[in-house]
Amino acid sequence: MLRSETVPQRVPPGGLVVVRDGETVEETPILSPLAWQIEHRAEVEITVAGATPAVRNTLLDALLVDVGATIAALVRSAVVGPVNIGTGIAPALREVALEAARALGADPALLPFGAMPLRDGDSAVLMSEVTRLRDEVGFTPGITWQEGVARFAIG
Asked: Where are the domains of the chain?
């Protein structure tokens, strides 16, 4: 998940969620005792990649369910301030590719790991720091990354 960033050229496996902070739309004072009702709009952009529309739709549905559940958990909580949304797990791309091969029934020997060097800007792993999400909000993702790969392969 990225915050107020542009969508990268390549979409990572499992998709990408970008939250654009937006701006405060309206601030309304509520008296006795004085409090403020603040309406703030933020845009959530979800990007997925897949070989067919069915694969993309399956992956998008899974991301929408998890994003919605996460936002609902945050709204119900008393947590204040920024909270990263993610799994907190950083499988290596090799692990994701091997899991996808298994899910598709493909021979993992067909994956030529190391055939190309990493390019500038490529990351071996990406992981969100989810301590506040897990410990303060009490939220964990509804599916594992392995289940996400399997759903992607089935789609």
From this structure: 2-154
